[in-house]
Amino acid sequence: MMKKLIASLALGAFALIGLAGGAIAQDAASAPAAVAAVAEAASAVAAPVAEAASAAEAAPAAAPVPNKGDTAWMIVATLLVIMMSVPGLALFYGGLVRSKNMLSVLMQVFVTFSLIVVLWFVYGYSLAFTEGNAFIGGFDRLLMAGIWDNAAGTFANAATFSKGVYIPEIMFACFQATFAAITCCLILGAFAERIKFSAVLLFMTLWFTFSYAPIAHMVWFWMGPDAYASKEVADAMTAKAGFIWQTGALDFAGGTVVHINAAVAGLVGAYMIGKRIGYGKEAFTPHSLTLTMVGASLLWVGWFGFNAGSALEANGFAALAFINTLLATSAAVLAWCIGEALIKGKASMLGAASGAVAGLVAITPACGNVGIGGALVIGLVAGFACLWGVTGLKKMLRVDDSLDVFGIHGVGGIVGALLTGVFNSPALGGPGYVADWVTATMVTAADYSIAAQVWVQFKAVVVTIVWSAVVAVVAFKITDLVIGLRVNEEAEREGLDITSHGETAYHN
C-alpha cells in the first residue's frame, strides 16, 4: 500500500511538471491579479506628462490598505467553510454508509481535504487566480511567491467587487483553498464503500489539477474592478478574464465550479468503478441517521461562510447571500418532505437532511444574485427536483451513485445556475448585474433579458459538464492503470475500515 501511495504522489508531481511545461509563456511575470490590473489600466489612461519637472514633483500613489472589517469577516467565513468539510461533510457522508465503512469515509474526506489544501498553496491557487489565458492561469504564485513584498514591507492585496476596496491576498487564497478542498471531498460520496484509498489520492490530484483549477479560472478570474479605469481599457481587461466570466455567466459562490463540477466527476466515477457488491439485491441502509443529521446541520451553518463569504466584503451583498441561504434551504426542506409524503406516504429524517443540502446547493450560484422571492422559489424547485434526481433520474441512469452526489449536487447545481438567470432580473426583485464596470452601473430592468441570461447560464453549465467529464474519464483511467480503482471482493465484503485502515468505528 505504501508503494502505491508513493506512486500516487509521484504521478501527481509528474502531472504538475507536465502542465508547467505546456503552459503558455508569459510576456512578463505578473503581480497579483488585481494589483497588476490596476497598474496596467493606470498606465493606459494616464495623461502624458508634459515636463520632466512635473513628473519629479508628482507624489507616488499610496498603496491601498485592506479593510480590517472585511478581512475579519473573511477569516470567519473561511473557518465556517472548513467546518463544512471537517466535520460537516465527513459526518453527513459517514452516517449514510454501512458501519463497516464509516471510518473509511471519514478518512477519505479528512485526507482529501488536507491533500487539496497542500496542492492549492503549491500550485493550484496560481493556476486558478493568476493571469494566463482564458482557460488556465500561470505560475506567478507558484508556492505563493510574491505574497509578501520585501521592499514595501507589506502583503500583496486582492481586489473585491468594489472599487478601492481590498483584502490581503493571503486571506483570499485561504478562502478559495477551502472551496477547492470541499469540492474534491464532495466527489467521494459517489463511489463510497468500494474504492481504494490510494486510488482516491491519485485521482484527486489529477482531477484537481486539470478540472477544478481550470474551471475556477474560467468562472471567477478577472482583473478586478479598479482595472476598469476607462472605456478605452474595458475590453482589454475583460479579454484577460476567464472564458466563462467573459460570457457574462453569473455564479456567486460555485454552482458550476463546485457542485456541477464535482457531481459530474462523481457520476463518471460511479460508472467506471462499478456498482457495489449486492447493489439492488441487498439493503444498503444508512448506519446512523443521527450522524447524518448532525453533519447536515454543520453543513448548513458552514454554508453561510461559503455563500456570504463569496461577497469578499462585509456588505449588503453578503447580507443578501446570508438571508437567501437561510430561506432557500428552509424552503427546500419543506418541499422535499412534501414530495416524499406524497410519494411514500411519510416524510423521513434522511429526506429532510437531503432537502437541506439540495437547497444549499441550488442557492449557491444565486445567493448574492437574486432577491428574497427568487430564493424562495429556487429552494422550493430544488427540493422537488433533487428528490426526483435521487429517485427517478437515478433509476434512469442505472448507476450506483452511493450517496446521491449527482442527484443532489448535479441536479441542484443545474437548477440553481439556470434559475439565477431568471431571478437575477430587477423586474423579479433581483439586483441585476454590473453592466459597466467603469462606472459600476447596474443593468436596468428594461435592459435585462431573462432569455438571454438563461442562455448564458446554460452554456456555462454545458462547458462545466463536458470539461469535468472528460478530465474525470482520463483521470480515472490513469488511476486504474497505475493503481487499480477498486478493492477486491473480499475486502469490500469485510468493509474498508478494517481492510484499508486496520481500524473499526465501533466496538461491541
Automatic annotation (TrEMBL):
Residues 1-25 form the signal peptide. This is Ammonium transporter. Residues 72-506 form the Ammonium transporter AmtB-like domain. GO terms for molecular function: ammonium channel activity. GO terms for cellular component: plasma membrane. The chain crosses the membrane at residues 72-93, 105-123, 170-192, 199-223, 243-272, 284-305, 317-337, 349-366, 372-393, 405-423, 454-476. It is found in: Cell membrane; Membrane. PROSITE patterns: AMMONIUM_TRANSP. Keywords: Ammonia transport, Membrane, Signal, Transmembrane, Transmembrane helix, Transport. Belongs to the ammonia transporter channel (TC 1.A.11.2) family. It comes from Rivibacter subsaxonicus. NCBIfam families: amt. It is a multi-pass membrane protein. It comes from the Bacteria.
